[in-house]
């Protein structure tokens, strides 16, 4: 009968002492224990009578356990260098290998038994990456990252200190050190591994002539632009400094299949160590993507640009470049011996590169702030997401001036802005033709329509100035794996398509709840639901959001308001935010700015708890949106929920709540005042759409979703009136609790009795309600034994 074990694949370096070689074991499978006993191995006294084995250094295990078995797939470790044997045909013999001496053959057959075992081993690759992806997916569902402002770690501060102390200018570019965890870094000789990876790359390039040409052009471009250099022969022999060879491979952007990027594998391990392991990552200096997009929606005139090969514009000190070595064939001739090259700049694939290059970009702004406008300096610090710059302003003149400033400012740090695109031809005309987006090539800016491009992954119809979605069915199997691949590939950073996408997420959660295998066919009932949803993907191409939150000709904004709506169902909960603006003519306009939703946990949670979680999400949205918007005027925030229980929670001053409620109420109170919270009926609550979902057709037609309920454009006296609810509970009230149906009832010691649930926990009724008064009267007629005070009136 076969059996299976869980194992992990690792790489090791082994030796048997200072007089032996170090052997790389690239594929070692772990096991809790190797079932080899000490009786299976020879003892020193057992070979004492064998003179031909005397004088050699044979290791003896004694009482130690065997910790490693080396198989025939590592011939370098087992290749005989010397053999000692006696005259007996079947006697033991010793073999010297690169790891030292070892003993072979029987020494003492007394007490041994024979056992024949036929074993077949099959290694099955587990869905480790997929499981991690799902784990992150559900972890993201269960947590809120909107207000996740964290300080720097000790290692982050160490990296910053290295950069601040080691920064210099080299040939018009910033030069920054690789932030090693220790000096020098502890890196084994991994050239053999780089050679293996190069041969693997050769096989791949040999099958695709077009790929081979593009790859060769990419290497030549690195050398031509000074991003890489050849290592001289005498330097190749030197071992005075840390050396590391980087495997490399081609990567294609899914949206740009013709563009090849050579990526260096800094995570590749040799001897259990990778270059990334030895380097500090550095602090996260990248602006929040949602923040850059929100600011991109503020002004009527928009433009965007891209830093050309941003990582390659920041140089590495000469003394550290040997940890960035790589192998390549001269002139791309794969029949020749490869030569040694090294990168001179920070590179794609280095875990430290994003932080390092963002530091250099910000340093450019700081070092030149006295020569450029404060607005241009602030744009460099706030409006870049890695190498993408997105800006929106109030006028074309301002856009022209800022684009010119930004080009000149970044040139001071060796950065060049390219791929310029704007919704205004006058701005584009101010940019040199060769620096504009390739999509503008051949267009007459006076006559032709501007193209559709992507702004941080979001589809931007530049001519119509709308943000949209290009969703199309993918050819994936109808399995849980296939569905996850499609759902996780949908890009919706600001949540505008949230109600539509929610339906697919709910289906995926249901398959998870059913514990359906990754490659099991989706049951017919769920298959029909999925096919119905996927058929609507094409219809989502017609769903659009105006890029600018202000309508054309709206003029100067004199007042800003943020309105946040929260809602929950048994399936999901979420919040949606609207920016309401008033102009000099007292006209009001409302626009959807951000939405966020989470699926309800797999473990059932009561509706009041989910409603409270939704309200907490609304409070966090307020903090996040205010932090990211660039407005000088104060923004007044209003919060809306259709849960009177949540309003009671928020307004309670004497209530002592359990941990779940207490933590969320504290978050709400830290971000808002109780007076800012209002009631909205479900019919007017747009957050209802992200707690239940919508079809593509419904989403396209929903003005409530895109602009909010109509009352947002009305004076406050026309806002929804709150229904009559109970007064806040007093200290003397009988231990109130919320039951499974979301109704407030009496708690207390009766919960331990054998009474029926309704008798143990009677409902608490409001005394001023016109229905409750007759009930109280009847109860008093029957002389309630607990006394009149227990009627809570």
From TrEMBL:
Alphabetical list of InterPro entries matching this protein: DNA/RNA_pol_sf, Retrotrans_Pao, Rev_trsase/Diguanyl_cyclase
This protein's name: Peptidase aspartic putative domain-containing protein
One family name in Pfam for this protein: Peptidase_A17
Domain of life assignment: Eukaryota
Record Gene3D superfamilies: 3.30.70.270, HIV Type 1 Reverse Transcriptase, subunit A, domain 1 (3.10.10.10)
Organism ancestry: Eukaryota, Metazoa, Echinodermata, Eleutherozoa, Asterozoa
């Amino acid at each position: 009968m076969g059996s299976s074990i869980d194992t992990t694949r690792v790489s090791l370096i082994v030796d048997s002492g200072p007089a032996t070689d170090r052997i790389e074991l690239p594929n070692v499978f772990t096991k809790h224990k190797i079932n080899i006993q000490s009786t299976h191995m020879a003892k020193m006294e057992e070979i004492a009578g064998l003179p031909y084995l005397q004088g050699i250094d044979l290791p003896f295990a004694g009482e130690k356990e065997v910790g490693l078995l080396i198989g025939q797939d590592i011939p370098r470790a087992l290749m005989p260098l010397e053999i000692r044997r006696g005259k007996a045909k079947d006697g033991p013999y010793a073999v010297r290998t690169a790891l030292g001496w070892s003993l072979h053959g029987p020494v003492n057959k007394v007490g041994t038994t024979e056992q024949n075992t036929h074993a077949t081993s099959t290694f099955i690759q587990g869905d480790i990456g997929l499981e991690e992806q799902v784990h992150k997916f559900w972890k993201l569902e269960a947590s809120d990252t909107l207000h996740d402002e964290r300080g720097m770690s000790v290692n982050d501060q160490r990296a910053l200190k290295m950069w601040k102390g080691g920064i210099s200018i080299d040939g018009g570019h910033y030069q920054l050190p690789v932030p090693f965890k220790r000096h020098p870094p502890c890196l084994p000789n991994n050239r053999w591994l780089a050679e293996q990876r190069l041969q693997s790359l050769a096989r791949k390039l040999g099958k695709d002539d077009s790929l081979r040409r593009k790859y060769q052009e990419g290497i030549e471009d690195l050398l031509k632009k000074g991003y890489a250099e050849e290592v001289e022969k005498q330097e190749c022999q030197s071992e005075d400094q840390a050396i590391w060879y980087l495997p490399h491979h081609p990567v294609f952007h899914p949206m740009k299949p013709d563009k090849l990027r050579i990526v260096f594998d800094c995570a590749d391990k040799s001897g259990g160590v990778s270059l990334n392991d030895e380097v500090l990552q550095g602090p996260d200096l990248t602006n929040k993507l949602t923040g850059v997009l929100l600011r991109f929606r503020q002004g009527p005139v928009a433009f965007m640009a891209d830093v050309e090969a941003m990582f390659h514009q920041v140089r590495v000190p000469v003394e550290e470049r040997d940890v960035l070595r790589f192998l390549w064939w001269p002139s791309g001739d794969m029949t020749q011996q490869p030569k040694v090259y090294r990168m001179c700049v920070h590179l794609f694939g280095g875990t430290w590169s994003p932080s390092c290059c963002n530091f250099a970009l910000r340093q450019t702004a700081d070092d030149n702030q006295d020569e450029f406008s404060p607005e241009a300096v602030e744009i460099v610090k706030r409006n870049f997401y890695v190498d993408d710059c997105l800006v929106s302003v109030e006028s074309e003149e301002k856009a022209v001036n800022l684009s010119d400033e930004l080009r000149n400012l970044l040139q001071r740090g060796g950065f060049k802005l390219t791929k310029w695109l704007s919704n205004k031809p006058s701005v584009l005309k101010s940019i040199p033709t060769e620096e504009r987006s390739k999509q503008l090539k051949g267009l007459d800016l006076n006559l032709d329509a501007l193209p559709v491009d992507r702004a941080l992954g979001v589809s931007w119809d530049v001519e119509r100035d709308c943000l949209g979605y290009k969703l199309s069915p993918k050819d994936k199997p109808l399995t849980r794996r296939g569905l996850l691949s499609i759902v996780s590939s949908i890009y919706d950073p600001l949540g505008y398509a949230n109600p539509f996408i929610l339906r697919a997420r709910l289906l995926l959660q249901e398959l998870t709840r059913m514990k359906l295998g990754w490659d099991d066919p989706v049951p017919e009932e769920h298959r029909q639901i999925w096919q119905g949803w996927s058929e609507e993907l094409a219809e989502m191409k017609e769903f659009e959001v105006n890029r600018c939150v202000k309508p054309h000709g709206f003029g100067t904004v004199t007042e800003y308001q943020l309105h946040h709506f929260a809602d929950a169902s048994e399936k999901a909960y979420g919040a949606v935010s609207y920016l309401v603006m008033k102009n000099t003519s007292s006209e009001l306009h409302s626009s959807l700015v951000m939405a966020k939703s989470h699926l309800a946990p797999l473990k059932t949670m009561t509706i009041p708890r989910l409603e409270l979680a939704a309200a907490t999400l609304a409070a966090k949205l307020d903090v996040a949106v205010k932090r990211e918007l660039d407005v000088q005027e104060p923004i007044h925030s209003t919060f809306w929920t259709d849960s009177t229980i949540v309003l009671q929670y928020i307004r309670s001053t004497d209530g002592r709540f359990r941990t779940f409620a207490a933590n969320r109420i504290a978050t709400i109170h830290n971000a808002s005042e109780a007076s800012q919270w209002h009631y909205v009926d479900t019919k007017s609550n747009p957050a209802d759409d992200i707690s239940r979902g919508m079809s593509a057709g419904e989403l396209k037609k929903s003005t409530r979703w895109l602009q909010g309920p109509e009352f947002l454009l009305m004076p406050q006296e026309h806002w929804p009136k709150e229904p009559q609810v109970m007064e806040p509970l007093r200290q003397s009230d009988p231990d109130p609790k919320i039951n499974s149906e979301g109704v407030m009832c009496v708690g207390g010691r009766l919960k331990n009795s054998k009474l029926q649930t309704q008798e143990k926990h009677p409902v608490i009724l409001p005394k001023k309600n016109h229905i409750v008064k007759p009930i109280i009267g009847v109860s008093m007629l029957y002389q309630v034994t607990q006394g009149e005070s227990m009627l809570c009136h």
